[in-house]
Amino acid sequence: MARDRAVVEETKCASATRDTTRYYYIETYGCQMNFNDSEIVASLLEQMGYRATTDIKNADLVFINTCSIREKAEETVRRRLRYFQSVSKSIDRPFKVGVLGCMAERMKKQLLEEEQIVDMVVGPDAYRSLPQLIEEVESGQRAVNVLLSREETYADIQPVRLGSNGVSAFISIMRGCDNMCSFCVVPFTRGRERSRDPYTIVAEAADLFDRGYREVTLLGQNVDSYRWVHPQTGEVVHFAKLLQWCAEIDPRLRIRFSTSHPKDMTDEVLHTIAQYPNICKYIHLPIQSGSDRILELMRRGYTREWYLERIEAIRRIVPDCAVSSDIITGFCTETEEDHQMTLQAMEEADFCMSYMFAYSERPRTWAARNLKDDVPREVKIRRLEEVIQLQKQLSLRHNRRDIGKTFEVLIEGDSKRSSSHFKGRNSQNKMVIFPKVNGYQPGDYVYVRIDDATSATLLGHIVTNH
Ligand code: 5AD
Ligand code: SF4
Fold first, then answer.
1. Options 3.40.190.10, 2.60.40.10, 2.40.50.140, 3.40.50.300; which CATH number does 406-463 get?
2. What number does the ligand 2 atom closest to the CA of 261 have?
3. Is the pLDDT of residue 272 over 50?
4. Where are the alpha helices (DSSP H) in 48-197?
5. CB within 6 Å of ligand 1 — which residues?
6. What average pLDDT does the segment 382-402 reach?
7. Which of 160, 260, 379, 449 places its Cα 20 to 30 Å from the Cα of 303?
């Protein structure tokens, strides 16, 4: 659209220069890590002179950053690719389409050769080769690089913050995963685990703080196995140290992190969380299942008892900490009894929130190669519904306990429903909605007293003396 306008203006005014800017459009699916990867890609494209557009008809390059973790996400991506193809065919200057990320390796043949709906396929460790790949595509070829790396962390790349609220940002601290949970495709799509240089992480966080950001979330598939060795001095930096360094940038910069792993989360990390008020009291600690037999088949590396002991350690060391989880229903061979054990474990762990999924078999995983996906779909969905219903009750109970308490809240912006209300989060990562008061703006900390709660939100008002 904007390009059409530029062309019209050019014909009206002979002295106007033609808009030669090249534009990229990028759409992202899946986890927060993927969103952060898109920000790295955006940074590389901007170094090449491309500018972002939100209108695909105006774009020269259209990218879709994909997710493979569940079948449903893959279906969505395919639908979008067909849509891109139809739009590209309908406009004067068709754009080129690139697939980025997790689906790249698996789908490259199908997407490039058989269906011919994309021009470029770029795996998660190959973004630095975008200049060459784009050149190939522009000369009419199809281009592909899906090589995984043991070293790439994009440590030196300053991500362009896409769709940011200017207050909170995400920083990838590691890539890949070595855990090989039997249901999970991530080790195959994102490769071996590697940790990013902590000095570049701290510098990125400090720069964000200087630019007005007040919250950073450190991202990794398993942050507890973060381990970096200085190539010259041999200095070893673990996650607790990284947290400490980030927390010491400024007390007004909140530090969050995700995802923690029950088998690796140490008391040392918990003590660091307890020690620094600006490290948020919130841990995302996926349990996946409450049955030891299923956990073993999932190859998670812990038992129910171990998990619940970790919850106790959190309560002991960081008493005001909220814990959320991921849960899979209907994993191979799961019985009604196993399912009941998951429901019980959810109650015991008192999750404030959970991401809940029906099991979906993923190619190449240990489960796909060795186990039968034998729980009927209706049963998986029914169990999922039960898990969702229970979590709703737990979340409501959790939130109701907060009525009457006062929390420090970081203002993120206007509430979705009303421009006369702000939204923000407390340290426990709960969304808090409250009426605006003159003199406050996004990025400010305020104290909010909680008056009411739903299963998803806390409602309150700003207090000046707490
Ligand atoms: N089926 C269903 N859920 C899955 N997850 C990962 N792989 C699968 C799968 N094959 C869920 C897990 C993980 C979250 C990111 O996605 O709960 O923690
Ligand atoms: Fe997948 Fe397990 Fe690694 Fe998480 S820890 S990304 S579930 S293999």
1. 2.40.50.140
2. 5
3. yes
4. 71-90, 104-108, 130-138, 186-189
5. 69-70, 183-184, 286, 288, 326, 328, 357, 359-360, 362
6. 98
7. 379
